[in-house]
Amino acid sequence: MNKLSCPLFAELGKVTKLGPGQAGRTAHHRRLPRPHPEGRTHGTPQPQPPTWAADTISGRSYTLPACAVHHSNNAKINFREKEKKVLDQILGAGKYDARIRPSGINGTDGPAIVRINLFVRSIMTISDIKMEYSVQLTFREQWTDERLKFDDIQGRLKYLTLTEANRVWMPDLFFSNEKEGHFHNIIMPNVYIRIFPNGSVLYSIRISLTLACPMNLKLYPLDRQICSLRMASYGWTTNDLVFLWKEGDPVQVVKNLHLPRFTLEKFLTDYCNSKTNTGEYSCLKVDLLFKREFSYYLIQIYIPCCMLVIVSWVSFWLDQGAVPARVSLGVTTLLTMATQTSGINASLPPVSYTKAIDVWTGVCLTFVFGALLEFALVNYASRSDMHKENMKKKRRDLEQASLDAASDLLDTDSNATFAMKPLVRHPGDPLALEKRLQCEVHMQAPKRPNCCKTWLSKFPTRSKRIDVISRITFPLVFALFNLVYWSTYLFREEEDETF
To answer: What is d(CA 3, CA 124) in angstroms, rounded to the nearest whole number?
Structure first.
């Protein structure tokens, strides 16, 4: 009912619109009838006793009719006050003990059932060297405590909200593979407890965790890693407390999840109950499958290593006499490759097995070192060739000197006569015919020319031949290694994915 719908409120409304002096005069001329000592007014019956009110402006008193009293009874219910009363009623002193666990299903003496679900807000870092990862998540637990049932006032009081976890019984859950963790208290603690009319309790909190993640790096950087999040009961055994995943969608992941070097392919939920000498404890786990992004390593490791190996082959085309250029090129590429290898190993833990990246860097380092050794071999062969040339030159000089001495001897003894056999026989000579037949019998068919020897014969020195052979051998062997490497490790990666 509106206030102005009552005649008295209409009069009071007119009064409040006037000035202080006018209000007093108006109230004097429009004075309400005074009550008769016998309960009657001057000529007007009053069936009900009057209700008094005061005019705050003029200071005079008035009687309120029944319409004002009826309006005061229709005031809205303060549900926050009702919520306080309900909380005091169910959590009051001596009425609820947070040390006692709830009963089982349907009030039985079985274990309390707690259902878990997670919302992964972000995954900050995944460290290979520490074998750990950091995650921020909203953690929720839900169970039923029949001691917390209350009247919902015909559905108007949907749930009660608490921010103090110690007011009600809480499951003693802990993260078994946790290294570090903290709650979020900016601006207020990010935690709440909701109590529903049927006694169901929902506990939600935002936490950040650093969890251990044992990794197998044999296929690094072509690997996939499985990082687990394990939750277990610390003190309550399965006879008192059982954790279950919430039905439907127990784990949710934020849609725009971005990781710099990994991709979250999928996640799996499972149970991991553990038995110790003190009993069996309920345990839940979620496995996060991460695939390493290979494009980063292709650009930062594989392509630079290939370029260093190819640069080391430039020395095969340099002149043999350019010793400073070939030595500096080989040493520079070798040191650069060694620095690249040490930088890669610095970002990885010192494991006892061989990784895929170790095979790649080791072979590339071997090729660069082989190119440097090739120049050492070429230099040795060049000096050997020079020594042979010097020996041949000396031999030719000695032969020439002996021929010159023999010719001088013939000139001095010109009177001497020698009986010499003819060097050329005529075709009709029977001895010449016999010799020719013997040569034809023992003569073999000529061999086919070897193309490799024919091609190498174009290069007279051994040092030059070594350079030419290296120009072909090194690229072919490196290409063969790439074929075997990529086919092997990519095939292993597919096997692990199907497994």
So the answer is: 61
Q: Cα dist. 249→20, 114, 116, 400 in Å?
A: 70, 16, 10, 101
Gyration radius of the chain over CA positions = 52
Whether the bond between 187 and the residue before it is cis, its omega within 30 degrees of 0, is yes
Residues 6+ apart with CB under 8 A from 200: 142, 143, 144, 145
Strands 279-281 vs 200-212: parallel, antiparallel or unpaired: unpaired
Closest C-alpha among 97, 144, 96, 108 to residue 239: 108
In angstroms, what CA-CA distances link 262 with 66, 267, 294?
76, 14, 9
pTM: 0.68
Is 251 in contact with 117 (CB distance < 8 Å)?
yes
Give me the half-sphere count of Cα atoms (radius 13 Å) on the Cβ side of residue 412.
6
Q: Can you give the pLDDT of all 499 residues of the chain as single tens digits?
A: 444 444 434 443 443 444 444 444 444 444 444 444 444 444 444 444 444 444 443 444 444 444 444 444 445 667 778 888 888 888 887 788 888 999 888 777 889 999 999 999 999 899 999 999 999 999 999 999 999 998 888 888 889 998 888 889 999 999 999 999 999 998 889 999 999 999 999 999 999 999 999 999 999 999 999 999 999 999 999 999 999 999 988 999 998 888 888 999 999 999 999 999 999 999 999 999 999 999 999 999 999 999 999 999 999 988 888 888 989 999 999 999 999 999 998 888 989 999 999 999 999 999 999 999 998 898 888 777 676 777 777 777 777 777 777 676 666 555 555 444 454 555 555 545 555 555 554 555 555 655 665 655 666 677 788 888 889 999 999 999 999 999 999 887 656 654 4
Q: Where are the beta strands (DSSP E) in 198-240?
A: 200-212, 224-233
Query: What are the structure tokens assigned to 169, written together?
Result: 């019984």
162: closest CA among 133, 205, 120?
Answer: 205
